[in-house]
């Protein structure tokens, strides 16, 4: 005869995993077929996107090693007939090295213009965020309206203003219009509100720092990820700018790379020998953008990390 205690223990003890429990364990151990297919589809789409993005760059690298015959033959994706050294030599010596002059002009327009624009935008965004003054929000609304106006629509008015002031066909006719960026002001205000605490500025004022010293020593350093972001956006926009130099400049010695390569490309139908110059020059024109993004990406990473901590 079985005792009540023994019967109760046998009833309470589990007899082993039921078929339903075992199926659940197997399901957790191996991913479902539908989930595996969805992951494969996402990875496939990403690989296609990367291939689509890198395809022009790969073509540019291989085509820059071809002479005129190799480019016109249509076999640009092979390194047969490697002629990159000759192309670089011709590029540097053609028309007394005018390409190098265009390269320096682009570095001046994009580098100098982007640094000054980023500094102005950061200071303006800092002022809109940290100071209260009459009509602040209305003035900021005007800045936002400037974001909606395309730059091409302003080219003719800026040309008329430059003509009145005698700046047409000078470096200043391209530099001055790119020193202000409404989107950079908006972005800088957002960064200032996120990265610069009011307590730090109050402590600086208590220690005797003026407003300019507080901005330069504290505010600008805290908002450096925003400064770098505005700089990269403006550097890319100025480097690729075409319409404004086309309107303002007529002297080839003042051309940026975008306008100079366009002038060479216009001559390729009459003189096919310009094809290697245009392709090799386009490859070299990409390098400053790549260097800028690679060298400054750590500031973006620092900004994203700070935002995650907050």
TrEMBL record:
The chain crosses the membrane at residues 45-64, 107-128, 140-162, 174-197, 218-239, 274-296. Pfam families: BPD_transp_1. The keyword Transmembrane helix applies. Residues 1-25 are annotated as: Disordered. This is Carbohydrate ABC transporter permease. Its main location: membrane. It comes from the Bacteria. It is found in: Cell membrane. Keywords: Cell membrane, Membrane, Transmembrane, Transmembrane helix, Transport. SUPFAM superfamilies: MetI-like. Belongs to the binding-protein-dependent transport system permease family. The keyword Glycoprotein does not apply. Residues 103-296 form the ABC transmembrane type-1 domain. It is a multi-pass membrane protein. PROSITE patterns: ABC_TM1. InterPro entries: MetI-like, MetI-like_sf.
């Amino acid at each position: 005869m079985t005792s009540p205690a023994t019967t109760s223990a046998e009833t309470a003890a589990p007899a082993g995993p039921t078929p339903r429990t075992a199926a659940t364990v197997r399901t957790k151990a191996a991913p479902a077929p539908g989930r595996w297919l969805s992951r494969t589809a996402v990875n496939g789409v990403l690989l296609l996107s990367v291939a689509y993005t890198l395809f022009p760059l790969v073509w540019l690298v291989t085509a820059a090693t071809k002479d005129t015959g190799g480019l016109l033959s249509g076999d640009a994706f092979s390194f047969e007939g490697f002629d990159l050294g000759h192309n670089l030599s011709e590029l540097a010596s053609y028309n007394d090295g005018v390409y190098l002059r265009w390269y320096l002009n682009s570095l001046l327009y994009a580098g100098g213009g982007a640094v000054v624009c980023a500094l102005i935008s950061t200071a303006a965004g800092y002022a809109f965020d940290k100071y209260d003054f009459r009509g602040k929000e209305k003035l900021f609304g005007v800045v936002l309206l400037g974001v909606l106006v395309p730059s091409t629509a302003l080219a003719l008015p800026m040309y008329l203003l430059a003509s009145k002031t005698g700046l047409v066909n000078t470096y200043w006719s391209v530099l001055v219009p790119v020193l202000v960026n409404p989107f950079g002001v908006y972005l800088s205000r957002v960064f200032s509100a996120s990265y610069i605490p009011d307590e730090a500025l109050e402590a600086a004022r208590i220690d005797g720092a003026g407003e300019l010293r507080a901005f330069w020593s504290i505010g600008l350093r805290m908002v450096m990820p925003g400064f770098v972001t505005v700089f990269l956006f403006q550097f890319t926009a100025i480097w690729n700018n075409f319409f404004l130099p086309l309107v303002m400049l007529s002297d080839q010695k003042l051309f940026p790379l975008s306008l100079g390569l366009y002038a060479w490309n216009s001559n390729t139908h009459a003189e096919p020998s310009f094809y290697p110059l245009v392709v090799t020059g386009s490859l070299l024109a990409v390098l400053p953008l790549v260097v800028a993004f690679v060298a400054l990406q750590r500031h973006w990473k620092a900004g994203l990390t700070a935002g995650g901590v907050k």
